Recover the amino acids of this structure.
């Protein structure tokens, strides 16, 4: 095994670690509304989401192709650049997880890779038209789409069941949430697991293991699906609390409308290969379902914090990606840089987890019905 | 300027995403609400007004079929890509 293969092995391990944090971080998107309205017990909801995330990862490869082809110049990508981009994404994911902010893992990944690419080769190496057309514009439209869709849907739901006894209606929508939550988990698997597949494929192409037009190898699909499913199962209870109870106090009909609009948006976008942020979409859906009932029902301060985190994700992940590339570059072109950064990253991650667990809040949230 | 924007963003593809996502999200929610409405009303009228109960049961069944069809269509679209 030469230096290039060592870097590739580190990149694959880092990509799968990112995929794990993606599942861990984005569990909230999939299950928060289901749990907060008591449609399913937390463990059952998380297990179901993990299984459907795993299945969803096998259903489509359009997003993986976008990540591998349309964002940066494939011919200039090196495994060190991919590594730096992944570290940028993981660092941003951990920072936002620590503070309980539902930011976008997808944009963190894309930002990290773009930042490392800019540091390595300058602006010519980034496909800004692909970045704008496939990432930025859909990123702006998707949450608004989910907001509007969930808003219209909840008004129609209330209109349809308005004069019925609340008990059977709530039970009905809780049952519906099992379906809409399942579709959302499936959609999450199809869109988010593919981003890691795209990045690993990019690294394999950069290392010469695959040709420029090669498809995603099966072992990449299986390992990415497994990593995101494991991350989903272990869950991120801090963000579940924010999504499930801090933005609005949800009833089952609102949860159903938010999940349904979110799943429809993600599935439609995945079909055309847009690497959407599931976080943005479901946050938009939750806010739309709340605002349509009563504008003051949405805690706009919390929503504002989420929007700030959204806006910061791409540039911050890009900055970390660029800095990490610079650090690895200090050690020369061999495997020493990635090995040192990876070791430091593992140490930092362990420290953050231990600190988080010592504080206890990550898995003992007191939101209504959100105790694992 | 418009030409550049059109070149960067595939407007027709994006319009399809907006159209499909909005209509699917709203229609499925409405159909499922009709399932609930039909089921609850059918239960309420089962003994006193069986014909009306039958109509509501039919409404619930149609709503359920629409929801099931939407789910199957969504998955088949994903598999076709």
């Amino acid at each position: 095994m030469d230096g290039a293969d060592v870097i590739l092995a580190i990149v694959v391990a880092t990509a799968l670690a990112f995929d794990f944090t993606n599942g861990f971080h984005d569990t909230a998107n999939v299950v928060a509304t289901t749990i907060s309205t008591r449609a399913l017990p937390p463990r059952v909801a998380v297990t179901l989401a993990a299984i459907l995330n795993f299945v969803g990862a096998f259903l489509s490869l359009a997003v993986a192709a976008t990540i591998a082809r349309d964002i940066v110049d494939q011919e200039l990508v090196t495994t060190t650049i991919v590594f730096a981009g992944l570290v940028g994404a993981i660092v941003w994911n951990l920072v936002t997880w620590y503070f309980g902010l539902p930011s976008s893992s997808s944009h963190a990944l894309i930002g990290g890779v773009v930042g490392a690419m800019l540091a390595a080769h300058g602006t010519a190496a980034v496909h800004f038209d692909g970045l704008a057309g496939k990432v930025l514009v859909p990123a702006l439209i998707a949450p608004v789409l989910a907001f509007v869709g969930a808003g219209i849907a909840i008004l129609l739901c209330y209109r349809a069941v308005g004069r019925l006894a609340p008990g059977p209606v709530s039970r009905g929508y809780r049952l519906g949430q099992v379906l809409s939550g399942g579709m959302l988990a499936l959609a999450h698997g199809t869109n988010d697991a593919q981003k890691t597949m795209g990045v690993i494929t990019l690294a394999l192409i950069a290392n010469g293991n695959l040709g420029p037009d090669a498809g995603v190898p099966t072992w990449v699909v299986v390992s990415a699906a497994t990593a995101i499913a494991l991350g989903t199962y272990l869950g991120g209870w801090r963000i579940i609390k924010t999504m499930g109870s801090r933005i609005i106090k949800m009833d089952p009909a609102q949860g159903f409308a938010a999940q349904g609009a979110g799943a429809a948006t993600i599935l439609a976008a995945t079909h055309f290969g847009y690497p959407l942020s599931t976080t943005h979409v479901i946050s938009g859906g939750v806010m739309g379902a709340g605002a349509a009932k009563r504008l003051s029902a949405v805690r706009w301060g919390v929503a504002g914090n989420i929007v700030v985190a959204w806006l910061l994700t791409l540039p911050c992940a890009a900055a970390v990606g660029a800095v990490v590339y610079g650090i690895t570059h200090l050690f020369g072109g061999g495997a020493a840089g990635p090995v040192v950064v990876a070791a430091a990253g593992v140490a930092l991650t362990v420290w953050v987890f231990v600190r988080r667990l010592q504080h206890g809040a990550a898995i003992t949230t007191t939101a209504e019905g959100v105790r694992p | 300027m418009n030409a550049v924007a059109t070149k960067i963003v595939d407007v027709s593809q994006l319009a399809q995403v907006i159209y499909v996502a909005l209509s699917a999200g709203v229609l499925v929610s409405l159909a499922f609400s009709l399932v609930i409405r039909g089921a609850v009303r059918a239960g309420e009228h089962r003994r006193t007004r069986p014909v009306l109960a039958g109509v509501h049961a039919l409404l619930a069944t149609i709503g359920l079929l629409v929801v099931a069809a939407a789910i199957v269509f969504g998955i088949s679209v994903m598999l076709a890509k």
